[in-house]
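Deviations from the work plan: none for this task. Representative record:
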Amino acid sequence: MRKLRGLAPQLTLLPSLILVAVTVYGFIAVTMVLSLTKSRMLPRFDRWEGFDNYARVWNHPRWEVAMENFAIFGILYIGGTLFIGLLLAIFLDQKIRAEGALRTIYLYPMALSFIVTGVAWQWIMTPDLGLERAFQIWGWDSFEFDWITQSEMAIYCVVIAGVWQASGFVMALFLAALRGINPEILAAAKMDGASGPSMYWHVIVPALRPAFLTAIVVQGHLAIKSYDLVVALTGGGPGFSTELPSTFMYEFTFSRNEMAVGASSAVMMLVLVMILIVPYLYSELRDGDR
Amino acid sequence: MAQLNIDRVSKSFGKTEVLKEVSIGIEEGEFLVLVGPSGCGKSTLLNMIAGLLDPSSGEIRLDDARIDDQEPKDRNIAMVFQSYALYPSMTVEKNMAFPLRMAGVSKADQKAKVNEVATLLQIEHLLNRKPAALSGGQRQRVAMGRALVRDPKLFLFDEPLSNLDAKLRVDMRTEIKLLHQRLGKTIVYVTHDQVEAMTMASRIAVMEGGLVQQLGTPAEIYDRPANMFVATFMGSPAMNLLPAIAGADGKTIMVGDQTLPLSPIAAAPAKGQTVKLGLRPEWFNLTGEGSAIVARVELIEPTGPDVYVSLRINGERVMARLPAGTEIDAGTERTFHVTLDKAPIFDADTGAALYA
């Protein structure tokens, strides 16, 4: 009986441990194996291709576009949400009226699914339907906003929609962190001669470091797995100009019957996340228990 | 002319009046302690001197210049906070240099000054650490260091020792007092701990209910408390207050059916007037010194150096402090002696002390 009680914590955790082991790590392993096979439409584990699938991924022009887009999207999306989120949080923290209402409004986009965001922004940004048409009807005849139809600019439309969706969430993170700063530190900084911008730059923003960590990790993984937003907004187009690693993976795995190539690209995505986030996590958490 | 003049300063938050026309003059080089229970307005007063709060009315002057309308940074005042308020992202060195950096002092001068102060406080070896890697006592020193580098006219301390453990608190108390002796800077120090106030202050302002109840040297506060609040707040265990009735001759006082002589410092109350007699626990003895008083022994609490004895005199509970090793049994009736030459009497209604 006592032995059983000692095991109780392990037993309670067991189901979720098994679930995580199978559905997360198990399938990661399966995907890795798949990427080494000659699987086409259905997985098969009897014919081996080796690492040629990876070479195929890296030599594919669409993957090249996907990587380039991922760099643009990742940097602008994370940077943009952090910047706008921080700015909103700082403005909301100025003891303004109706803060609660504004906070809710800014946070609302997060409640939408990326599909909804994508469709809504597609309407807004389609030239003969949204913004461009509205401005032209209102009399600004020369107004042009047709990025979504241009191969070089369409990815920035994805950035705009993504930033719009997630900035409020980052704002909430930063706002909570701002409220958590020891007021005595702010008083001390005031007496030490910091005021306005120097106060924010030297004292407040550095104190938000843990919130930056959270925001970057959350936004980073959203960036790499963002799929639905692109699908709804541009469908990867025009052409494949807004291809992201995730759309590449889906396309090859499920549309082109190149499952092994798709699996290889999925593994590459995992590696990308590792490369981007692990060193950052390591450096932050190593002296994190300060 | 005092260096720091707090002149009829009041502060209200909404309808709550936290400070009521407080006036205190502080001489250069003085160590003034503001002491009182929580909510007495002592921290509010300190924050107003610092510039973190604006007075509702009244003036604060430093070296004859009005400062209550100046920005905190322009007042040439440094403050040490209860939580130390170190900047967590900066090293100790950067923390200490921060006020200089904000004032636009050159890098070389910053470094020289920080090193000088770090040597003074013996924290040179900590300069490259971050606050999180420091112990409570070390953080305390860094916070003082950050205040010292600016060479301010006035230092403010807001309960700086209350986050330290008991032993360290005593050490840091000594250290702050030594530092004051060495540097001779004017200090205003807020605490709720009357022992800190007694040991460190050159003068104490005992505050309660938004008023300064008494302002004086530790000896004045302890030996001639202005009223019952000061008498019971300062000293541990607290002064005992016994209801008593003035005798007919103006020289004696009756506690129940026991007659005691009136202390020479006390004013003679009118015959039959009800007063409170103040008796400090340490005035009691079994060695026959002073006047005899019969009491019932209720409880004995040895503390090591002393024995606290809980007594009943005329139904009132009274605490006496006797030397360790005193032979005494609970539950017995005994004759104690008590020295009364400093015993104050208080007006039973107003609480004010009645001195001759």
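Residues 2-34 of chain A form the longest helix (33 residues).
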